[in-house]
Amino acid sequence: MIKILFFARLQEEIGKDSLNIEKAGLTVNQLKQWLEKEHGLHSLDQTMAAVNEDYADGSEVLKEGDTVALIPPVSGG
Amino acid sequence: MIKILFFARLQEEIGKDSLNIEKAGLTVNQLKQWLEKEHGLHSLDQTMAAVNEDYADGSEVLKEGDTVALIPPVSGG
Amino acid sequence: MDTRYSRQELFSGIGKEGQKRLQEKHVLVLGAGALGSASAETLVRAGVGTLTIIDRDFVEWSNLHRQQLYTEADAEHNHPKAIAAKNRLQSINKDTTVKAYVLDAKADNLEKLVQGADVVIDGSDNFDIRFIINDLSQKYRVPWIFGAFAGSFGMSYTFLPEKTPCLQCILSTIPSSSMSCETSGIIAPAVQMTSAHQTTEALKILTDQEESLRRTLLLFDVWNTQQQSIRTDKVKKTDCPSCGKERTYPYLVHEQDTRLEVLCGRNTVQIRPPEKKEYDFNALASELKQHGNVRKNSYILICTLSDCRLAIFQDGRVLIHGTKEIDKAKHLYHRFIAKEKE
Amino acid sequence: MDTRYSRQELFSGIGKEGQKRLQEKHVLVLGAGALGSASAETLVRAGVGTLTIIDRDFVEWSNLHRQQLYTEADAEHNHPKAIAAKNRLQSINKDTTVKAYVLDAKADNLEKLVQGADVVIDGSDNFDIRFIINDLSQKYRVPWIFGAFAGSFGMSYTFLPEKTPCLQCILSTIPSSSMSCETSGIIAPAVQMTSAHQTTEALKILTDQEESLRRTLLLFDVWNTQQQSIRTDKVKKTDCPSCGKERTYPYLVHEQDTRLEVLCGRNTVQIRPPEKKEYDFNALASELKQHGNVRKNSYILICTLSDCRLAIFQDGRVLIHGTKEIDKAKHLYHRFIAKEKE
After folding, report:
1. pLDDT given at position C257
2. Contact assignment for D38 to C192 by CB distance below 8 Å
3. What pLDDT does D342 receive?
4. Chain D hits for C45, Cβ within 8 Å
């Protein structure tokens, strides 16, 4: 099982702050594409990601038990 | 093993923010007394405690794997 | 077009409906120190309808590094904090009705103020007053939002009458010693963090979103970036004297003010006369001038003696700064201020 | 005896030695919006030696709910933020040297300012300028502290040249769309939280305690009380164009300002003439009065037309509020302001 944590607008778009899915073996980028298709999330290509609290790039492969945080950039100041 | 997290002045008094000890079976109050004796911490009787992020009273018995947070009251405003 | 609150209304947790509700609500901020300053400013900027703020002190230079409503001019002229706070708050938002009282908060004078409020923000700096707030909160069913800090560490909890445990359930007695700004110092970011958590909870209450409240005791250290949320589900005590079935509100039992009251702390002794009195500041000033430098405004007269300083408030209180000795303080009080009385 | 900074010196992370160092340092705050306001106030209250603050905008009513240095009077008189900020900051602490510039920050005019600073605080509201700051930080080896928010969510990171990844390592391109105050709103507690994390890190840098810095990308949501610290150890790229071995500082390549520059956003078009020019505000005012209401101070002239508003800055820039259409904006610019030029 993979746990996904959503921050900021993603939380509102998907209506919850986390999601558990059976998707070990996907890369971070593939996970984003899957979320766009299956859960209607938008523009995840610019969303940052962390796996188990380590900043991760799109090619990182997800393992069973990983926690993925998806972080959309915010710009306000 | 029991993990103890220290906050505020306790962190400074003991010189670290956590400690792992083999003390399952003690109550929270007994743990405080042990810390006063063995680690020179002061006035733990008024320190609040939480076990696994649940507020705990002094009679709670610690189990293997518990995380105890010790929280001295602060009053500034 | 952009309106004053347009960015706040755009936030999904508030919205236009929330903004309207906020503008009809009344907040009581107890204390105009660091937390009271920060929280009052946030809520007045946010557009709360009415804000009452009370404080017994005047602005001092050592407040300025963390108390955001005040300027050097306030410290220089010894402005009472409540008055200086009101001036700044009204220059920020004249649509909020700001009521300010220079007042030494006690059970009796707080009673009416708490009744009129939708939420009470704790901006106090001691647990004596917090246990009084706690009893009043229970008695009049007004939620209150605890906040406290020392050093870089802070904590906050939202007390909802009938729903959450009360302060008495969590701390069975007033802590006899606790870390304060006097013992551990304080950095302003820890103030802002504590206030941010308090005002966020206040915004939820003031927009009638009780279901969104945090419901945990929150601890944080801004220097080490620690944060912990502690559940309190098991803490409420059915036999609690403040919120239990047979409650007695132990901190509301009014002391009979029949004699001089003396409080110590921070190298200062406070003396309060048995009955409220009004001073003739002009007469007092011309006499005290023979003993030391005198400054005054309409709320306070300050006389600097060789080794200590007298601060005389229009409501009768006298603070003697520079000593912890009660006998010395009483001696000065009788010598300079209340010569005719016992 | 209590001195101005006594409570801050009492905090073990600062101490008397830290206070002394702080008073010798120079902070550059880029932007005087919500974050810039909050961070500048904290650092000036804390007693930093010199603070430089720059901003291109003037105070508007919709700023007041979250930008703590400003009052209704600043919005009413369209005071430039940098000037209003300086006035408030100096009333708070006249021992800090405050330098304020009404300036549209770009690579060329920032270059000198960054070189003189011990740390740069990000108070900007867009990634274009953050990528410029990032390159300047690398080029002159000055740390910068990123902060950004939207809604109730914020993030912060401390960029240390040669030690941590840089912004370009983390985000390989400027985000083309990101949540901002215009799309998601903002509540003031999220501002205070972000600023508290930024100024805490700044206090560590300014007291020479690099070893205490957080070293993680911090995310937080004040409404939901979420917080997450993300390690960035593996992120630094050796071939990064901004901090790598063969760096080119891509965001410092100066555009040649040979033609009218037009920027869009927030229902506003900004036009900057090819060369710096000074307007005769009196002449301009008497002419524009025939077309709409005109207000001015020494920095800015504002003319309200039927469906939009022109804000003309002394440095040459013109903001046309109320339209997103470049052609319409250019038309107005040529019709009213730069009639003689192409």
Report:
1. 52
2. yes
3. 40
4. 64-66, 68, 188
**Cβ(B10)–Cβ(B70) below 8 Å:** yes
DSSP A44: G
Q: Which of D28, C140, C156 is nearest to B76 (CA)?
A: C156
Closest CA to D30 of D126, D95, D97: D126
- Cα distances from C312 to residues C60, C266, C336, D304, in angstroms, run 15, 17, 11, 53
Q: Could you tell me which chains touch chain D, where touching means 3 or more CB pairs under 8 A? A: A, C
* B abuts C (3+ Cβ pairs < 8 Å): yes
User: Could you report the per-residue pLDDT of D137-157, keeping only the tens digit for each?
Assistant: 999 999 999 999 999 999 999
pLDDT of residue D265: 61
At C122-142, the pLDDT tens digits run 999 999 999 999 999 999 999
**CB distance D152–C212 less than 8 Å?**
no
pLDDT per residue as tens digits for the range C23-54: 999 999 999 999 999 999 999 999 999 999 99
Q: Which residues sit opposite C97 in a β-bridge?
A: C50
Coil, helix or strand at residue D131 = helix
Question: Do D11 and C46 lie within an 8 Å CB cutoff?
Answer: no
Contact residues on chain C for D98, CB-CB shorter than 8 A: none
Query: D225 and C203 in contact by Cβ < 8 A?
Result: no
Q: What is the DSSP letter of D337?
A: I
Task: Say which residues have a Cβ less than 8 Å from residue D314's Cβ, sequence separation at least 6.
Answer: D102, D278, D279, D281, D298, D299, D300
Q: Which residues does D195 contact at the CB level (< 8 Å), separation at least 6?
A: C189, C192, D35, D38, D39, D42, D147
User: How many Cβ atoms are within 10 Å of A32's Cβ, its own excluded?
Assistant: 21
The residues spanned by each domain of chain D are 5-231, 260-337
Rounded Cα gap, residues C273 and D305, in angstroms: 64
CA distance readout (Å), D179 to A72, A73, A77, D149: 8, 7, 11, 8
Cα angle D314, D319, D323 (rounded to 5 degrees) comes to 165
Determine whether the interchain pair D186/C8 forms a contact, defined as Cβ–Cβ distance below 8 Å. Answer: yes
Q: What are the tokens at C173?
A: 């007695």
What are the structure tokens assigned to D205, written together? 């840098």
Judging contacts by C-beta atoms under 8 Å, the chain C residues touching residue B53 are: 228-231
CATH number of C260-337: 3.30.310
Of the candidate CATH numbers 2.120.10.80, 3.10.180.10, 3.40.50.720, 1.20.1740.10, the domain formed by D5-231 belongs to: 3.40.50.720
Using an 8 Å CB-CB cutoff, list chain B residues near C235.
55
Separation CA C82–CA B34 (nearest Å): 46
Structure-token pair, residue C148: 């406290």
% of chain C with per-residue pLDDT over 90: 77
Q: What is the reported pLDDT for C342?
A: 40
pTM above 0.90, yes or no: yes
Q: Which CATH number fits domain A2-71: 3.30.450.20, 3.30.2020.30, 3.10.20.30, 3.40.250.10?
A: 3.10.20.30
3-state DSSP call for residue D18? helix
Cβ atoms of C189 and D200 within 8 Å: the answer is yes
Q: Which of chain C's residues have a Cβ under 8 Å away from the Cβ of B28? A: none
How do the domains of chain A map onto residue ranges? Answer: 2-71
More confident residue, C112 or C1: C112
D7, D41, D61 ranked by CB distance to C4: nearest:
D61
Contact of C226 with B17, CB cutoff 8 Å: yes
β D26-30/D119-122 pair status: parallel
Q: Nearest to residue D229, comparing CAs of D214, D209, D208, D247?
A: D214
Pairwise CB contact (< 8 Å): C193 & D192: yes
Q: Which of C59-73, D184-198, D246-260 is least confident?
A: D246-260
CB-CB contact of C230 with B53 (8 Å): yes
What confidence category does residue D334 fall into, taking pLDDT thresholds of 50, 70 and 90? confident
